[in-house]
Amino acid sequence: MSRNELQAAAEAILFASGEALEADRLAQALDVTEEECLALLQSLAQALEERNSGLCLLLMEDKAQLCTRPAFEESIRAALEIKRNAPLSPAAFEVLAVVAYHQPVTKSYIEQVRGVDCHHIISSLMQKQLIEERGRLDLPGRPLIYGTTAEFLKCFCMASLDELPPLPEEAAKQLAESGAPDELAE
């Protein structure tokens, strides 16, 4: 296949998938190396951008997904009669920020930072697939640890957690003074 045919095939596969697809899996389907596949994906993303397509290619660490451009959200909702998801509360954003910046974290660490019970907010964020359980600490009680998901990256249009904005100096200083949770130091 020519490069244009490979790019078109990648676009078709991603469209048909409807969800994020691993680059190595796409490379196998196209019978190319993973490096060639990543170059094809970059080229496809650029082509969609240049032609001002209603679609964009979201590259997330080792996955790729075709998505609609945010600019067309209202038109899509109107045409498909989709109800808007309930926005996250300020408390949910706080919990999500603690998890994103300090993962993996325990519920007790989140509660220590926020100063209030976070059980229901953690459950809600897990239902929305923005955070997930990442295992348990090898400590008495074996507390669960949480981290963000690929859905989190997709919702916030980030390829990786490296794209998180830096914490304001004052907040970073306060967190540094409080230190990392002892239970995660191992």
Q: If you had to describe this structure to a student in words, what would you say it looks like?
A:
With 186 residues, this protein is α+β, with helices and mostly antiparallel strands. The protein folds into 2 domains: 3-78, Orthogonal Bundle (Arc Repressor Mutant, subunit A), CATH 1.10.10; 90-184, Winged helix-like DNA-binding domain superfamily/Winged helix DNA-binding domain (Arc Repressor Mutant, subunit A). 51% of the residues lie in helices and 15% in strands. The chain has helices at 3-17, 23-30, 34-50, 73-80, 90-102, 107-114, 119-127, 150-155, 169-178, and strands at residues 21-22, 55-60, 63-68, 105-106, 131-136, 144-148. The strands form 2 sheets. A 3-stranded antiparallel sheet has the order 1-3-2. Strands 4-6-5 form a 3-stranded antiparallel sheet. Strand 2 (55-60) and strand 3 (63-68) form a beta hairpin. Helix 2 (23-30) crosses helix 3 (34-50) and helix 5 (90-102) crosses helix 7 (119-127).
At a glance:
This protein is α+β, with helices and mostly antiparallel strands.
Shape call: globular
Count, helices: 9
End-to-end separation in angstroms reads 51 Å
Query: Quick one: CATH class of the largest domain?
Result: Mainly Alpha
Structural Rg: 20 Å
> Can you tell me the CATH superfamily of the largest domain?
Winged helix-like DNA-binding domain superfamily/Winged helix DNA-binding domain
Approximately how much helix is present in the residues?
40-55%
Oligomer class: single chain
Label the structural class.
Answer: alpha+beta
Order of helices and strands: HEHHEEHHEHHEEHH
By DSSP, the count of extended strands is: 6
- Report the CATH architecture of the largest domain: Orthogonal Bundle
Ranges where pLDDT stays below 50 over 5 or more residues in a row are 182-186
Q: Kindly report the CATH topology of the largest domain.
A: Arc Repressor Mutant, subunit A
Largest sheet: 3 strands, antiparallel
Question: What is the spatial order of strands in the main beta sheet?
Answer: 1-3-2
Q: Number of domains in the coordinates? A: 2
The pLDDT mean sits at 85
Approximately what portion of the residues adopt beta-strand conformation? 5-15%
